[in-house]
Amino acid sequence: MRSIVIVVDAQRDFMAADGALSVAGAEALIAPMAAWLGALDPDETAGVLFTFDTHLPDIYAGSAEAAEFPVHCVRDTPGWESMLPADPVDRAIPVFRLEKGVFAMWQEEDLVVRDARDPASPALPRDLFFTRLREQGVDHAIVIGVAADYCVRYAVEGLVSRGFSVEVPAALTRGIARQIDAVVAQDFAGKPVRVT
Predict the structure, then answer these.
(1) CA distance 13 to 61
(2) How far, in Å, are 12, 35, 70, 104, 157 from residue 64 at the CA level?
(3) Which of 42, 96, 123, 154 allows an S-S link to 112, with CB 3.0 to 4.6 Å?
(4) Cα–Cα nearest to 35, from 176, 169, 155, 195
């Protein structure tokens, strides 16, 4: 069974202890996540997709998210950068990136998926990217990253609604108010989602 791996918002503002919206315990995940990505088997991995929370201060100030969290992950700032370069991923595994401006990577209509190793290659509309995975027989996703109770949770919800079964390694995600075990038990009971 081949899987799509989704690395949710492994960015400095979330992962570093001094980040603008640091998730408790996330910094300790960086080395294990890099090692895990480096050990992915090309025969079992259809691709790795890195999501980037991406904000512009003027737009963020008027958003619903601003009522809950301070500005973070401002495009082209150090806090926006990934703490996990694509380098550890086997060159035989395609690596992609998707930038989003809200918690859910599915909410905005015009998002695209880009080749992370070749930015000049044509982008694919997000929905077409996932439709093509399903057409290729890929119906399983592994999700890691932060925060378990926000962007990870919404990534999982969207994958399930698109026909994917989902696995979330507990050791490779952290939440703000709820950890992934509680998120799955409370929000995905009876759904094809498991914590490993």
Answers:
(1) 17
(2) 22, 36, 11, 13, 20
(3) 123
(4) 169
Assign 193 to helix, strand or coil. Answer: strand
Cβ burial of 171 (10 Å; 0-12, 13-18, 19+) is: middle
Task: Confirm if 116 and 99 have CB atoms less than 8 A apart.
Answer: no
Alpha carbon distance 16, 128 (integer Å):
33
Integer CA distances (angstroms), 65 to 21, 71, 83, 101, in order = 12, 9, 23, 10
**Nearest to 73, CA basis, from 147, 6, 8, 9:** 9
Q: What does pLDDT average to over the chain?
A: 94
* Stated length of the chain: 196
Report how far apart, in Å, the C-alpha atoms of 15 and of each of 58, 69, 92, 104, 173 are. 24, 15, 27, 18, 10
Phi/psi at 157 (5° precision): -60, -45
Q: How confident is the model at residue 61 (pLDDT cuts 50, 70, 90)?
A: confident
Which of 152, 159, 150 minimizes the C-alpha distance to 173? 152
More confident residue, 90 or 74: 90
Q: Of the given ranges (3-12, 52-61, 89-98), which has the lowest mean pLDDT?
A: 52-61
From the options 3.40.50.850, 3.90.76.10, 3.40.50.410, 3.40.50.300, give the CATH code of 3-195: 3.40.50.850
Model pTM score:
0.95
